[in-house]
Amino acid sequence: MSENQHIIDEPSERTIRTRTVKYSGYVIETAVEEYELNEDTVLTRDVVEMPGAVAVAVLNERNELLMLNQYRHPVRMNLWEVPAGLLDIDGEDPLHAAQRELAEEADLRAASWRALTDYFSSPGATSEAGRVYLARDLSELPRQERTERTEEESEMTYRWVPLQDAVQLVLDGKVHNALAIQAILATYAASARGFEGLREAAGGWDFHPYMGHRRQKPQTFR
């Protein structure tokens, strides 16, 4: 057995002594947690609780990746991205969420879905976890089934980018969205292997701190 087969991220529960919520909003909750690293060490850390997200690498029959441009206010930039969204609907299956985002943001559906990568967006600060899916065998939604895009999404523009060109955009530092970078590089790696060995799109969310049922969302200690 290869030594690399033993490399896998694993749950590691620690005792939380205190937890004080500093802010609770629609999507984000921030808290200060005091926890036991081990029997001799107690640490205090800021924690940002977020529900998680899904993203979709959309690849057409010409080996082109769909990229969309959207304004992102926290960084004051228009970014080239892939379809993505938060898991902010209670009880929604993540694969269904990805399919919904593809329909809402790109007016497309896909007959073929696979899991590309699972991730923690910034595990030193936030609980946000998610998955990047690969969607192929595309078809356009009928006009009557399309969603009217509002707010920042109303300004979206789109481009089909040859996959190899998208990789070069990442290496040239022209694409900065972390999910887009994951989607581009993972799709390129998968294509080099003829898309063999990719995981099924459904299930497999044990890595997620809440959907994996390792623990319930922390309550506030007083």
UniProtKB/TrEMBL annotation:
InterPro entries: NUDIX_hydrolase-like_dom_sf, NUDIX_hydrolase_dom. Residues 49-183 form the Nudix hydrolase domain. GO terms for molecular function: hydrolase activity. Pfam families: NUDIX (PF00293). Keywords: Hydrolase. GO terms for biological process: nucleoside phosphate metabolic process; ribose phosphate metabolic process. This is NUDIX hydrolase. The lineage of its organism: Bacteria, Bacillati, Actinomycetota, Actinomycetes, Micrococcales. One of its GO terms (cellular component) is cytosol.
